[in-house]
Amino acid sequence: MDIRVGDILEMKKEHPCGSNRMAVLRIGADFKLRCEKCGHEFMTTRSKCEKKIKNVIRKDSDNA
Fold first, then answer.
1. Alpha helices in the chain (DSSP H)
2. HSE-up (13 A, CA, CB side) for residue 35
3. Does residue 61 surpass a pLDDT of 60?
4. Disulfide-capable partner of 25 in 4, 20, 32, 44 (CB 3.0 to 4.6 Å)?
């Protein structure tokens, strides 16, 4: 799966605050994500995160 820093991930499950959109801050073996609603930052493994992704929203596609 092609995920880049700055992408917005729409997840299958909601964060406890009610949002399902996460911003990608760091990629590698782990992802560092930030909740778009409450701003909570957390790390999760790539494999777990990729299973939970419903949609990837690219910032670049908005400009085109």
1. 46-52, 60-63
2. 14
3. no
4. 32
Both tokens of residue 49? 């995160």
54 within 8 A of 38, measured Cβ to Cβ? no
Contact (Cβ atoms closer than 8 angstroms) between residue 22 and residue 44:
no
The closest alpha carbon to 37, from 13, 16, 59, belongs to 16
Q: What is the mean pLDDT of the chain?
A: 91
Please give the single-letter amino acid code of residue 5: V
**Whole-number pLDDT of residue 64:** 42
Q: Per-residue pLDDT tens for 30-54?
A: 999 999 999 999 999 999 999 999 9
Cα gap 62→59, rounded to integer Å: 6
Side chain identity at residue 21, one-letter code = R
